[in-house]
Amino acid sequence: MNTQIQRPSQTKSFSTVFLIEMWERFGYYGMQALIVYYMVQRLGFPDERATLVWGAAAALIYVAPAIGGWIGDKILGTRRTMLMGAVVLAAGYALMVVPGQDTWFLFLALGVIVVGNGLFKANAGNLVRKIYEGDDSKIDSAFTIYYMAVNLGAMISQLATPVIKDYVNNLYHNDFGWHAAFAVCAVGLVVGLLNYAMMRASMAHIGSPPDDKPIDWGKFALVALGGVAVVFASAFILDHREVARLFVYIAGLVVLGIFGYLIAIGRKEDRPGLIAALVLVVQTMFYFIFYQQMSTSLSLFALRNVDPAFNVFGVHLWDWSPAQFQAFNPIWIFILSPILAWIYTAAGKRGKDLSIAAKFALGFAIVALGFFTYGAATHFAGPDGRVSSWLMVWGYAGISLGELLVSGLGLAMVARYVPASMGGFMMGAYFVASGISQYLGGVVASWASISGDQLTDPVASLPIYASLFNKLGFAALLCTVIAIAVLPLMKRLSAAHNEHRAAG
């Protein structure tokens, strides 16, 4: 009699993580679509402060998974920690629903979101790694589809929350529309948790060792107390620019120290993979400086210099809310992800797949094209200083395809090159690097801050934004050249890593 227990398929397990990630990102990107506008239009922040505060918040949100990954690996379990993060995130968005907020209350709510993302993000990605561990072509394909989950949730929420905000504000002639939109973000997390509860059986065999043991309530209490401390520390950092800058510098040194330490103490056969991962993490850091422009400089550009009307051959189709332009990023990624995943899998079967390092180089070149599209705004603008909405569509196409080739494969890079025993921790370190870059992206966006008459004069603000976008285009080209220059080194490191893994 065969008593072997039949485990759920990889596809079913992956679908469970895919769906909770989709709803978590629904909440996050719905909030991101509005947060800079909220600070500028509702709380009266100058452009520079709004972009720097959001840059610092994004840095904290992405740095926190370094600790969350370790908690998942060693303390509470990967599955448990991910679910705890989803609950905390729901609470963070719920706090933003409270009307009559002041600056400090907003910073506390963002602090709760920092803790929730720290517990959720690295562990969700690490579960995907565990599902497909050992199959490189499937890992690249799985993480590309996983990235589509991120952007499916983002697309829906970034289209919905600006409409909800405008509808409620206009209906009641007050500012509660902002808080109604944030409420939708909280609801997204609740839906994600309910969905996971229904499909949890497919994940019973996936996780880290602590998941297989009863929960240690003493350790749980320590994690909860630490989370409360991080909430208040995050609020303090957001309220003090110099502290935020110091925090980012320290985080950068910590990331380098982590890699240096692991390379030094690691087994000889693990070192080529770790060095390759370090090179790719540095390249990813440069990418996220460009990425952060979507919620900062490009968002404000859409507010002030883009005609909201969509016209085809002179026929007016619809108007687009400025905040909704960010949705073109996930829309393009949703369209392109399955195509790239199919290309990776097909090329892998024929042994002709490009290396991750080569995909990074190609990605930077395409990002450059996207920013040069925006930089050409001065040539396409009308007498009123506004450009067609279609410029945003095609600019986002370039940035989004570049994102898939760089950021979309960043998680796959960790899964491929980093030893399994360091998976959650290194996934966290990857997010720390991303967070540092998003703060720097906020600093770059502040170079295009406008004030006074420029706030209401598109003709005056247009050249300021176009100048920044052209500089970013040239910076992306420089990144392309550097990525191409390190390809021979990456080829040698990858060959050594694969040789040792095959021998093992």
Automatic annotation (TrEMBL):
One of its GO terms (cellular component) is plasma membrane. InterPro entries: Dipep/tripep_permease (IPR005279), MFS_trans_sf (IPR036259), MFS_Transporters (IPR050171), POT_fam (IPR000109), PTR2_symporter_CS (IPR018456). Gene3D superfamilies: MFS general substrate transporter like domains. One of its GO terms (molecular function) is peptide:proton symporter activity. The chain crosses the membrane at residues 22-40, 52-72, 81-98, 104-124, 145-164, 176-199, 220-238, 244-266, 273-291, 327-348, 360-381, 393-415, 427-448, 468-490. It is a multi-pass membrane protein. Pfam families: PTR2. Keywords: Cell membrane, Membrane, Peptide transport, Protein transport, Transmembrane, Transmembrane helix, Transport. GO terms for biological process: tripeptide transmembrane transport. SUPFAM superfamilies: MFS general substrate transporter. It is found in: Cell membrane; Membrane. It comes from the Bacteria. Belongs to the major facilitator superfamily. Proton-dependent oligopeptide transporter (POT/PTR) (TC 2.A.17) family. PANTHER family: PROTON-DEPENDENT OLIGOPEPTIDE FAMILY TRANSPORT PROTEIN, RESISTANCE PROTEIN MDTM, PUTATIVE-RELATED-RELATED. This is MFS transporter.
